[in-house]
Design a protein that fits this description.
The complex is a heterodimer of chains A (876) and B (459). Chain A has 876 residues and is an alpha+beta fold. Helix content of chain A is 35%, strand content 14%. A 4-stranded mixed beta sheet of chain A has the order 2-10-9-6, with no helix packed on it. Chain A has a 4-stranded mixed beta sheet with strand order 12-20-19-16, with no helix packed on it. In chain A, strands 1-4-5 form a 3-stranded antiparallel beta sheet, with no helix packed on it. The chains are: A alpha+beta (876), B alpha/beta (459).
């Protein structure tokens, strides 16, 4: 904070930069600018990036000189073998070179390529192989004395299969965007033309194209007069603009299919069984370009190049961007997963630019390793050339561990004895000690209460307590996670006696329940499938409504009115939750009853009687459920590391890759092997050297916030911050209806009135969503801390920490020591102590207006400065 | 007792005195020194008329179209309701007798009588759509107009760019968000929420000034000691966005506290008593007055929520039975409250030449049932209602669109909330096809494809 420059800026009133005003008036659109001399990210640069409107022809890969002097070691052709079925399908080839320093390059443009038989296949300068006739051939690539070959088999050249609606036409329409969400794939279609989103229902789309609108969309007598060719080529006006050219490959597929009599989709059509992207993984250089090749394998054992029809997306556009043709450009250091979709299949290429750090492998070999987490993290860091930060000091560790695991600061005495303790295993012992504390139970009970929506907005007071007590007792007993969830999901009985049953009072509607269950226990968002098949994951509408039908038999019975709450309606005490033997949910989409089905699992027969939730719970908590354990492991990881291995934590899906697959899989397997033991998981994470690295980045790892090279600082959660203020000032908070001394993290409810907690981002517990809680700093928070009554009242209340220190007769330097230990869990450095003592010396004689005891006022102000400092407000 | 706002000379640690500081802020709301301002103006770079502000009046509860701005005097009594139409200063345009003052300003506003939506008929959905242009589906929470404006143009001077008066909307029954945040753009663009009642005799922005017992000299030393302590963790701000943002929020808070312009913007007591009375000495009236003061001083977007709930309060939500409101409240309370505040706002903005640059959007979240219900009230009716627009590029003195003969459905020029959003953004000078990106990387158009500005409304 630079007071001098701040005042100067404010004084002359420069708060807008001039180029901004000029630009703004020129185009009516304003770029970002700074405020009060501080850069605030008003705008991210990628916001205005347009999505490609139509695929361009695949460009030949530009030649780019290698930036390193490392010699070429070998080259290979991707794919190494291929069978081309018909003259209609070409094959993109990529010549990939590997250099001595381990990096790869796309050398296709500089390679000399030749085919052993021009009658079978030719290969052009862009590296595309064209079938010419049945037979076998070998394609050879040569670069700088290195040579590689690929084999080609061509068959059925003279008798090509007709264009397939399912496998040729729909992929074209999907690729050019006809059936995308903003266009004809919208729930209401566009201009009377409605396609299923991304072509999930070929039969319906076929009917729409060939029969609706007086069959004008497709004209088999004169294909060129079909609306689906006239519109996207802009021969006649089209609201969606130009999508492809006459004569383009897209046009050839569409017109060819129409001319061939528009064969419909058949059940016997070959289906895509898998897709593969080449290269699957590569370490590239900044500025490098890399063509990806996407191969689809079909159920009839054929495989072909679908690069042109696949959709690409970069997981980190700062690292790599990819165009509509799978042509990647690498930008800055890091790793980007490039997602590839074709039909409903998804895969990734992991492309990275290792950081430009000249690191000795000894950096990774000598880095501390406490368990397998460190092996997986260091392995990945080594590939990325990112060194880990040095280990955190004991002071940093004790503060961090208490805050992350139990939401409290260590007491001054605890800090002192930990710092003095010479035993080598003192950190492991400390972790065990923290986990035995009641505050540890409070913290995790609060966390699961967020997830399970414990709130008096939807429950009577008795029910809320019953629900909360059950959760807290489960945490205290370290109840295995699968058992915990099973007990919730199959809960029956009186809401005051079985706390878990209240889950069913909070979640009453089958659709709402189904969505929240998926979010909380699987970490997946299925809401999209309410209106259409999920565009980013495999979930279909049938999965969605089938899942909801699992919750259709839950019944609530009550006789005891518990009052009414504004905006909520009547509340009841003594609700009995039970499952009716039969009963089903009719959705408003299919207007029929779908068999109860846990997402993509085997459905229960409709006629099955009994509690359908039992079947669901069994499926959900099975050790091999790919999402159940991953979800909770990822959430617990985020609690400590500030970021999920998959982020956001409630959006696990194939198209949202983790930053370290090996680690997430290993943690998940270990957790399942240890019987879903949450405490074991917490201990494993906390014991790792990864968790125990310093938060201070090295020059070489400063840009990393997700690969685990250093601890990422995080602002204390609202409740933890408030409790910490109460603790350091020795002035407890008083919440309406709760006894004095009850900490914020002990509250069973987030509806308890507190300006402070709301301002600092306490979640309302309305929806199961991690983002309900926020730790983003706001002006409201700053104003409240500076001028508000929460912290100021605690600081000035008589009998608190400062009064105690004064009573003990502490000198200023002792007081500074004390406050540092209590607030920051460390001793001040000599220069810090000297600077602050000197500041106190100057301030203490000053008679500020309204102050009776100037020394006390100065000490209060010093405490304020410590308690609002970033070092205090952030766990680090 | 010494306060920061007292006009006394105070030495700051760098020698700048409080008085110097206060006086240096002329034209501070434009953020430019005088010579710079004129130089730019001469060069044609500053065209304040293009920099349009917006005041959005959220008429929470949902005004009945038939009892306000779309009367059906020829319909049966069970439909036309208890009120009579009156003439306005524009011939051919009539509105309800509950708005006698507003009738004198019909040349300034336009009535859009054919707005409808097709989502669930609960308050929350309409609030979402009328503040963002879009229903929240699939976990996508769209930003409100003010947050988009802030995102696009940033702050102007010392005042926050986007302010919400007086409180955020609370429970409306649907347990859904209300579209008054920055949504997927991120909390950094959320409006600054007043969190106080401007009609309160002791009204002040919470925490805007230090409590009496903390003198300026203490505020100052606290601030410098905090900076001193944070020196040891300088790497926080270098390596972490949240830390950087926290530093910036503290700077902005101190700016608000110490900027005469910014503090003064929130000081309603500086308005003459007769002006305050003209707006109505109630929460909404004073909220509208405060909105005017803020816009005058550089705030780009102000939302005024007329009510925060529809339960146990007298609002536009006239179901006719408790805990909701009776239809008579339009004549007795709610109507006059709106009439006085709205008319005064248009009068003042016109007199100050600000109406041209300030869009005033007044809308509920839906209309009400044409047929009076057995309780003598009207229930929710999203199929048709009236939106009132004025200033900021809107052509006043006209009616756009029409409903059928009982006000049940649009008969002419049906429009949806997204059309209104497109019109608002057009007035604000933000292209409606602008693409925003969610944190998950999903690209979202500012206004959905196919929804264009309502050209008839525009000058």
């Amino acid at each position: 904070m630079k007071i001098r420059s701040f005042l100067l800026l404010a004084a002359i009133g420069v708060t807008l930069d001039l180029p901004f005003l000029i630009r703004a008036s020129q185009n009516g659109q304003a770029p970002p600018q700074s405020t009060s001399g501080k850069d605030v990210p008003y705008h991210q640069s990628d916001m205005s990036k347009p999505e490609p409107t139509a695929p361009r022809h695949i460009q030949p890969v530009a030649a780019h000189p290698s930036r390193s002097n490392s010699p070429l070691v070998k080259i290979e052709i991707l794919p190494a073998s291929m069978s081309l079925v018909a003259p209609r399908y070409d094959q993109q080839l990529v010549v990939e070179g590997t250099f001595a320093d381990g990096h790869q390059e796309d050398l296709t443009a500089s390679a000399t390529m030749a085919s052993s038989s021009a009658q079978v296949a030719s290969v052009d300068k862009s590296g595309t192989a064209h079938p010419q006739g049945d037979g076998q051939a070998t394609i050879t690539a040569t670069v700088g004395g290195h040579r590689a070959t690929a084999s080609v088999a061509v068959k059925d050249f003279a008798t090509p299969a007709p264009w397939s609606f399912r496998n040729d036409v729909l992929p074209v329409m999907t690729k050019v965007g006809c059936n995308s969400g903003p266009c004809h794939g919208a729930a209401a279609g566009k201009n009377g033309f409605k396609l299923t989103l991304r072509g999930y229902d070929p039969e319906t789309d076929y009917f729409t194209l060939t029969h609706q609108a007086l069959a004008r969309r497709t004209d088999r007598m004169e294909p060129a007069k079909s609306l689906i060719l006239l519109k996207p080529t802009l021969a006649i006006p089209h609201g969606g603009g130009h999508r492809f050219d006459v004569g383009s490959p897209e046009y050839q597929v569409m017109s060819g299919w129409i001319a061939e009599g528009m064969p419909p989709p058949l059940d016997s059509d070959a289906r895509v069984t898998s897709i593969e992207v080449l290269p699957h993984e590569a370490s590239l250089e900044p500025g490098a370009e890399q063509q990806l090749v996407v191969m689809a394998r079909f159920s009839d054992d054929t495989a072909r190049d679908v690069t042109r029809w696949a959709k690409f997306d970069s997981g980190d556009e700062g690292v790599a961007t990819v165009d509509a043709n799978g042509h990647v450009t690498m930008h800055s250091y890091g790793e980007a997963p490039v997602t590839v979709w074709y039909q409903s299949h998804v895969t990734f290429a992991r492309l990275r630019i290792p950081f430009p750090n000249n690191l000795d492998q000894a950096v990774f070999k000598s880095a501390p390793r406490h368990n397998y987490i460190d092996d997986d993290i260091l392995k990945h860091l080594a590939v990325l050339h990112i060194p880990p930060s040095h280990p955190a000091s004991d002071s940093e560790f004790i503060r961090r561990a208490y805050l992350d695991a139990a939401g409290i600061l260590p007491r001054r005495g605890e800090v002192e004895s930990f710092l003095e303790d010479p035993s080598p295993d003192k950190r492991d012992l400390l972790i065990d000690a923290i986990m035995k504390r009641p505050e540890f139970v409070d913290y995790w009970a609060y966390k699961w209460s967020d997830l399970l929506l414990v709130t008096s907005n939807r429950l009577s007071n008795d029910q809320m307590w019953s629900y909360y007590d059950w959760i807290r007792a489960s945490v205290a007993a370290d109840k295995p996670w699968d058992q915990f969830v099973r007990e919730i999901l199959t809960a029956t009985g009186n809401s005051d006696e079985n706390g878990a049953a209240n889950y069913w009072i909070v979640h009453r509607d089958p659709l709402d329940t189904s969505e929240n269950v998926a979010q909380a226990f699987l970490g997946i968002t299925i809401t999209c499938a309410h209106c259409h098949n999920h565009p980013l994951a495999k979930w279909t509408q049938k999965d969605y409504y089938g899942m909801a039908n699992l919750f259709a038999r839950v019944r609530l019975k009550t006789f005891a009115p518990g009052g009414s709450r504004a905006g909520v309606g009547p509340l009841f005490n003594d609700v009995t939750v039970y499952s009716a033997p039969t009963g089903e949910f009719t959705d408003d989409r299919f207007m029929m009853v779908l068999p109860p089905k846990p997402l993509d699992a085997t459905p229960l027969p409709l006629e099955a009687t009994g509690d359908t939730r039992v079947y669901f719970a069994k499926w959900l908590t099975a050790g091999d459920n790919p999402f159940f354990a991953r979800n909770i492991v990822n959430r617990v990881w985020r609690n400590f590391m500030g970021r999920g291995l998959v982020e956001p934590v409630d959006d696990l899906r194939d198209t949202n890759p983790s930053t370290n697959d090996e680690l997430l899989s290993a943690l998940t397997a270990d957790f399942v092997a240890h019987h879903f033991d949450i405490d074991y998981l917490i201990r494993t994470i906390m014991q790792s050297a990864t968790y125990q690295t310093s938060s201070e980045p090295l020059k070489e790892n400063a840009d990393d916030d997700k690969f685990g090279s250093h601890y990422v600082i995080k602002r204390l959660p609202a409740e933890v911050l408030l409790d910490a203020y109460s603790e350091v000032t020795q002035e407890p908070e008083k919440f309406d209806g709760y006894p004095v001394g009850m900490r914020a993290l002990q509250l069973p409810d987030t509806a308890v009135k507190s300006y402070f907690l709301d301002a600092f981002g306490r979640p309302p517990r309305q929806q199961t969503r991690e983002s309900e809680r926020t730790s983003v700093p706001t002006i409201t928070q700053a104003l409240h801390i500076i001028n508000g009554d929460t912290l100021n009242d605690k600081l000035r209340a008589p009998g608190g920490t400062i009064d105690m220190l004064l009573k003990l007769g502490f000198a200023d330097d002792e007081i500074v020591n004390y406050l540092y230990l209590a607030a920051l869990s460390r001793y001040p450095t000599d220069s810090e102590r000297e600077a602050l003592v000197k500041a106190l010396d100057t301030a203490e004689p000053q008679q500020a207006p309204g102050v009776d005891d100037p020394r006390r006022a100065a000490l209060v102000d010093m405490s304020w400065a410590l308690l609002t400092s970033e070092e205090f407000m952030f766990n680090h | 007792m010494f306060r920061l706002d007292a006009d006394k000379k105070v030495e700051f640690c760098d020698g700048v005195t409080r008085r110097d500081f206060l006086h240096a802020g002329a034209l501070g709301f434009l953020g430019l020194t005088l010579p710079e301002f004129f130089a730019l103006k001469a060069a044609g770079a500053v065209d304040t008329s293009k920099d349009v502000n917006c005041i959005q009046l959220m008429l929470v509860g949902g005004p009945s179209q038939l009892d306000t701005w779309d009367m059906k005097p020829d319909a049966p009594a069970s439909i036309r309701g208890p009120y009579k139409p009156i003439k306005t200063n524009v011939s051919g345009v009539e509105i309800s007798e509950i708005f006698p003052r507003m009738a004198k300003h019909a040349d300034k506003f336009a009535l859009l009588r054919s707005c409808y939506h097709t989502a669930a008929a609960v308050h929350d959905t309409g609030c979402q759509m009328m503040q963002t242009g879009r229903l929240f589906q699939g976990g996508l929470e769209s930003p409100n107009y003010g947050s988009v404006l802030r995102f696009q143009k940033g702050p102007r001077g010392d005042v926050p760019p986007n302010v919400l008066i007086p409180y955020t909307i609370g429970q409306l029954g649907g347990n859904l968000p209300h579209g008054d945040t920055a949504g997927f753009l991120g909390k950094a663009y959320d409006p600054f929420v007043l969190n106080a009642d401007p009609a309160d005799p002791d009204f002040k922005v919470p925490d805007m000034l230090p409590p009496d017992y903390i003198a300026a000299v203490r505020v100052d030393r606290r601030r410098s000691w905090r900076a001193e302590i944070d020196k040891s963790v300088a790497y926080f701000e270098d390596s972490n966005q949240d830390a950087k943002l926290m530093d910036s929020t503290f700077d902005q808070a101190y700016t608000l506290m110490t900027s005469a312009k910014a503090r003064e913007a929130f000081e309603l007591t500086q308005e003459p008593e007769d002006v305050r009375k003209r707006y109505g000495m109630n929460r909404f009236g004073q909220g509208c007055l405060l909105a005017r003061r803020l816009v005058e001083r550089g705030v780009r977007f102000v939302t005024v929520n007329m009510f925060e709930t529809v339960f146990n309060d007298i609002t536009w939500d006239i179901h006719g039975s408790a805990p909701f409101s009776p239809i008579s409240c339009y004549r007795d309370l709610v109507g006059p409250m709106f009439d006085n505040a709205y008319s005064s706002l248009l009068e003042d903005l016109t007199n100050q030449g600000l109406l041209e640059n300030t869009l005033v959007l007044a809308t509920g979240e839906f209309g009400r049932t044409p047929r009076i219900n057995p309780a003598g009230g009207r229930d929710h009716w999203p199929q048709c209602w009236t939106v009132v627009l004025a200033g900021g590029g809107i052509k006043g003195g006209q009616v756009v669109g029409a409903s059928d003969n009982i006000g049940a459905a649009p008969k002419d020029r049906p429009v949806m909330p997204a059309h209104v959003a497109a019109t608002v953004y057009k007035c604000l000078g933000i292209p409606i096809d602008k693409e925003l990106k969610t944190p998950q990387g999903r690209v979202v158009r500012l206004v959905d494809h196919g929804f264009d500005p309502i050209e008839e409304l525009l000058v």
